[in-house]
Amino acid sequence: MTRRHAVVETSLGELLLVADHDGAVADPGLRDALCGIYFPGHWYPPDPDSTGNRVAAGEDRLFLAVGMQLAEYLAGDRRDFDLPVRTSGDAFSEQVWALLREIPYGETTTYGALAVALGNRNLAQRVGQCVGRNPVSIVIPCHRVVGADGSLTGFAGGLERKRKLLELEEPEAVSASRLF
Predict the structure, then answer these.
(1) Are 74 and 39 a contacting pair, CB within 8 Å?
(2) Which of 80, 91, 153, 154 has the fewest CB atoms within 10 Å, i.e. is most exposed?
């Protein structure tokens, strides 16, 4: 497996993109996959030795697609991502990240609701740890998870970015009714 990384400028700041190429994967379309998106000041950044060589985002087919889709999403012109993604967490983390992918655009859920979906409401804290360590922010929408009372809680990219992402996805009727 060969890793590489690039940096793209977005309205949320420079994002570090990490991808790998796995020649052992049978399907050539899945050999290149996005395996990380990290914000400046990310709580759990990747080890610099694990990101591979830096490449120019505009000269790498996968990073070019990621950059374009992120730009469309942040402009309000995209709701879903069509990117090959590969995560490498433990079995529980993979279950949590799979549930995150199912949260519809413009909707939120809670850590507790995810724990219940996994079969044990007492797993909310463990779910929160996995959500916080989601390696592919935005594309795997961890920002759509809020506290039990609807409050904004931890986000590896910072609460201000989480707020911006949620406001971006907010239904028009809700945003029109806000006083701020």
Answers:
(1) no
(2) 91
Structure confidence by residue, pLDDT tens digits, 94-138: 999 999 999 999 999 999 999 999 999 999 999 999 999 999 999
Per residue, the 3-state secondary structure of 8-58, as one string, reads EEECCEEEEEEEEECCCCCCHHHCEEEEEEECCCCCCCCCHHHCCEECCHH
What is the pTM (predicted TM-score) of this model? 0.90
Q: Catalytic residue among 18, 130, 142, 165, which?
A: 142
8 A C-beta contact, residue 38 and residue 23: no
Is there a catalytic annotation at residue 130?
Answer: no
Domains in the chain: boundaries:
2-74, 91-177
Q: What b/e readout covers 98-119, taking b as 16+ CB neighbours within 10 angstroms?
A: ebbeebeeeebbbbbbbbbbbe
The verdict on domain 91-177 having CATH code 1.10.10.10 is yes
